[in-house]
Design a protein that fits this description.
Blueprint: H1 4-16, H2 20-24, E1 27-35, E2 40-44, H3 46-59, E3 64-73, E4 76-84, E5 92-101, E6 104-112
Length: 113
C-alpha cells in the first residue's frame, strides 16, 4: 500500500527534477491548492494546477525544495519546506499539508511565512 508520505516524497522528487508530468501524475483530477491563512483557493482542478507549476518550473531553472521536518497523520503528510532557486532570488518558507486519498493528492494547503 502507498502511504500519504510515499506520495508526498514522490511529489518532492518530481518537483526538484522539474518533472511536470511526473509531478502532476500524483494529483487527482479535482485536486485543489489553498492558501490556508486566507482560505483562498489558488487553483482548482488538475489543469489549473498544471499551469501554475508549468510556469514555476519553466521560470525557475534552479528551483529546489528542501523538507526540514515531516509529520504524518491519517490521510495527511505535513512538511516544513523551503523553496530556493527562484528567478527573483527569493525563497519560500512554508508548511505544506498534503491530503492523499486513493494514492493521489486531493489537496495541498500552504501556510507561508
Amino acid at each position: 500500500m502507498t502511504t500519504p508520505r510515499d506520495i508526498a516524497d514522490a511529489q518532492l522528487a518530481a518537483y526538484n527534477a522539474r518533472d511536470l508530468a511526473g509531478f502532476m501524475a500524483l494529483f487527482a483530477d479535482d485536486a485543489w491548492l489553498e492558501d490556508m491563512p486566507t482560505g483562498q483557493r489558488r487553483a482548482t482542478g488538475k489543469a489549473a494546477i498544471t499551469e501554475i507549476y508549468r510556469a514555476r518550473f519553466g521560470d525557475n531553472p534552479n528551483l529546489h525544495c528542501v523538507v526540514h521536518a515531516t509529520m504524518d497523520e491519517g490521510d495527511f503528510a505535513i512538511d516544513h519546506e523551503t523553496v530556493t532557486g527562484l528567478a527573483d532570488g527569493g525563497r519560500i518558507d512554508c508548511i505544506a499539508i498534503y491530503e492523499v486519498r486513493g494514492g493521489l493528492i486531493r489537496s495541498v494547503r500552504f501556510i507561508r511565512k
